[in-house]
Amino acid sequence: DSLDGTATLEFDALVADPAEPGEQTNVAEVCVAELETCDDDDVTVRVPTLTILKDLTAGNTGGDDPDLGPLAKVGDVLTYTLTYTLADGPVTNAVITDPVQPGLQYVPGSASDGGALVGGDVDGNGGTVTWNLGTLTESGSVTYQVKVLEAAVDEAQPIVNVATIDSAETPPDDDDATVGV
Q1: Which of 28, 36, 63, 155 is the most exposed, having the fewest neighbouring CB atoms within 10 Å of its CB?
Q2: pTM above the 0.70 mark?
Q3: Residue 85: which of 141, 47, 130, 23 has the closest Cα?
Q4: How far apart are CA 42 and CA 19, in angstroms?
């Protein structure tokens, strides 16, 4: 067949899961006998990445142990910092979750930037500290605090807290911070 004028060809392309982060370019080329050279065009899509890093930044007054890491004493108030890094954003429906481990008690009102304890009891035992971040356009960090309870001594050591970040466009990413009591 021959082309007279303009023709349109449409197709859907599926980005692999997991996709390579960054910009991905798809090139289409048309070659016909009536033209000396082929004609091409391209479209670039972005594949965002969203990662989290969790650190214990204050309150571990017991020093450090080569096997357990940072050490805390009963009554210490620990501050966790969750730093998230966004590349090739924005992303939507971003959420950070961080379950409060047994032996630790969330300090009411300590979650920065709109974070809140979901579940757990009125004293801050149990539950998950959660940030519903919505649309993210840049990297950032959030913090919250927990108090070390007497019950922490009876928990498996070190106590491991795992934070997770997720969005509609990225797979979940997590990181942990440990403390021995």
Answers
A1: 36
A2: yes
A3: 141
A4: 18
| Sheet order of strands, 140-148 included | 49-58, 77-87, 140-148, 104-106
Amino acid at 165: I
Give the type of residue at 22: G
Q: Give the span between the Cα atoms of 131 and 142, in whole angstroms.
A: 9
Per-residue tokens: 165: 């970040």
Token pair of 34, please? 């009536």
How many whole angstroms from its chain centre is CA 79?
19
Q: What is the pLDDT along the chain (181 residues), one digit of tens a residue?
A: 566 667 777 777 666 666 667 677 777 787 877 778 888 888 877 789 999 999 998 787 888 999 888 999 999 999 999 999 999 999 999 999 999 999 999 999 999 999 999 998 888 889 999 999 999 999 999 999 999 999 999 999 999 999 999 999 999 999 999 999 9
